[in-house]
Amino acid sequence: MTQTVSERAWRDTGRPFPYVLMYHSIAVHERDPYLVTVDPRRFDQQLRWMRDTGLRGVSMRELLLAHWAGEACGLVGLTFDDGYADFARNALPALRRYGFTATVFVIAGRIGGDNEWDPEGPRKRLMTAVEVREVAESGVEVGSHGLLHQHMSYLDDDELVPEVVESRELLREITGQDVTGFCYPYGDVDQRVVDTVAAAGYEYGCAIWRSEVSGLHALPRTYIGDRDGTLRLHAKHLRHRLTGALTARQVRRAPAVRSATGSVLKFR
């Protein structure tokens, strides 16, 4: 991206937030206690719905450039958190079939490991450095999901800065490309964390829910899970269109926000 904007500038323009979907794992599964896995057949149905609805899935980089140029109509950002190996195996081929691309947020300090932060869930392998490089070379944008998948607001500055800075450096070395996007593990973000990400040179950040720090470095996203068939996808898209003009400066007056599991979320 060549164009950046401060959080204050975003709020003052009154621009709506772009439409961004949040995925994690695309795999056949029996147990999914954290609701992070979408079956490949369901994923294909979701991509087909997007295409038939006139939407085209793109990376965050492409979406934001189009958004600021006023050319984002019909575009939806597709993001995949954690960098699971099934992204390369299952998600990428499906995206290619539909002519879509995406952004995958990789945990730089756990490359080649697994999702040990989900103790009650099945083990899921994370992409190796070779796989991360291959998906980057295929045209997928690679962003940072930190070093170790930690709650960012819980960290002191000495811990927070490496999560933001060192993860970017590692991913740059692996991909040979710039890393311009950051995604907050667990959607955990406050003003100090946002400021750290912006100061590190990231051009945007992805959160989950709307909050008082929503803006270019804490963009809200729409959760997509295995239960999301065409009716639910349509409802979520309609909800975004109806509330899309809600900018960061209006969040304080917004109704309570609920997580994917239905619990009311409170923001620090």
From TrEMBL:
Write down the InterPro entries for this protein, in alphabetical order: Glyco_hydro/deAcase_b/a-brl, NODB_dom, Polysacch_Deacetylase
Record the organism: Saccharopolyspora hordei
Q: Name one GO molecular function term.
A: hydrolase activity, acting on carbon-nitrogen (but not peptide) bonds
Keyword Signal tagged:
yes
Q: What is this protein called?
A: Peptidoglycan/xylan/chitin deacetylase (PgdA/CDA1 family)
Q: What keywords is this UniProt entry annotated with?
A: Signal
Question: Which Pfam family, any one, appears in the UniProt record?
Answer: Polysacc_deac_1
List where in the cell it is found.
Answer: Secreted
- Principal cellular location given in the protein's record: secreted
Instruction: Give the UniProt record's GO annotations in the biological process aspect.
Output: carbohydrate metabolic process
Q: Supply the source organism's classification.
A: Bacteria, Bacillati, Actinomycetota, Actinomycetes, Pseudonocardiales
Q: List, for all copies, the residue spans of the domain called NodB homology.
A: 74-268
- Keyword Manganese attached: no
Gene Ontology cellular component annotations, sorted alphabetically: extracellular region
